[in-house]
Amino acid sequence: MEEELEQTRRPEDPEHESDELAPTPLDHPLFLPVLFVGLAGWFGYDAYLTVDPDMLKHQDFNRYGFRLLVFLGALYSYRGACEMKRVPSQPLATAALLLLSTVWLAHDAWLSSDAHNLSRVAVNRGLVPWCLALTAWYGFTGWLEGKGEREPAVVLPLLVLGCACWFGYQGFLNSSEATTATSMLNRAAAAGLFAGFLVTAYYAARRSRVPLP
Predict the structure, then answer these.
(1) Which of 63, 81, 88, 207 is the most exposed place for a label (fewest CB within 10 A)?
(2) Does residue 155 lie in a domain region?
(3) Domain range enclosing 55
(4) Complete DSSP assignment for 54-91
């Protein structure tokens, strides 16, 4: 009786199996790259080329969305190409793309003469440390993954604590902040990151005592 039930659960008919695992367009390796690149083109047009007054009111949304979609489009294009060629992707690919995105953001924060970028200097400069922290994290974990090792439990809490200290300095100690609103944003970010540090430190302590599967 048990054998019959097992056979009904796992049919050996190849036609039935192929019907169950039939691929869809959503499973294609280039589906997400094409989607992200198309959206990036749309956002980029509205962010940098359009003269529509209604769209000019939403430049923040379009420009930051364009950055994110360019990053995702490049990342998933690389992964999709590796999947189609049946070769493993490089563990440091995400960190490399994050570094390029950080350089782009730093250029707009310190070197750009664009009017919109000049009006968002405080925001862009505040985002650069976040991007640097993400780059460092993915670079470190990618390097360890390439060696077949796992990152030490203490690394993520220390990274979060470092970001909390940076934003805490900007919000509480740095007297050169342009506006009170920016100072309040930095203080809120520092508080949130310090809470994140406590959570990650708690799980790091548990992980160091109990081996995870």
Answers:
(1) 88
(2) no
(3) 29-89
(4) HHHTTHHHHHHHHHHHHHHHHHHHHHHHHHHHT-PPPT
Buried-state track 147-166, b at ≥16 Cβ within 10 A, e below 16:
eeeeeebebbbebbbebbeb
Whether the pTM exceeds 0.85: the reply is: no
Question: Does residue 128 form part of some domain?
Answer: no
Give CA separation, 192 vs 20, 158, 160, in Å: 46, 15, 10
Whole-angstrom CA distances from 52 to 59, 61, 80, 213 are 11, 15, 35, 54
Instruction: Give the Cβ contact number of residue 20 at 10 Å.
Output: 8
The secondary structure of residue 24, as a DSSP letter, is -
Could you tell me if residue 147 is inside a domain? Answer: no
Instruction: Tell me phi and psi for residue 173, to 5 degrees.
Output: -115, -25
Residues in CB range of 60: below 8 A, 6 or more apart: 120
Q: pLDDT tens across 11-61, in order? A: 555 555 445 556 777 788 999 999 999 999 999 999 999 988 888 888 899
Task: Report the amino acid identity of residue 100.
Answer: L
Q: Which two tokens stand for residue 126?
A: 């505040």
pLDDT band of 212, cuts 50, 70, 90: very low
Q: What is the total count of domains within the chain?
A: 1
**Are the CB atoms for 171 and 145 separated by under 8 Å?**
no
What pLDDT sits at residue 148? 84
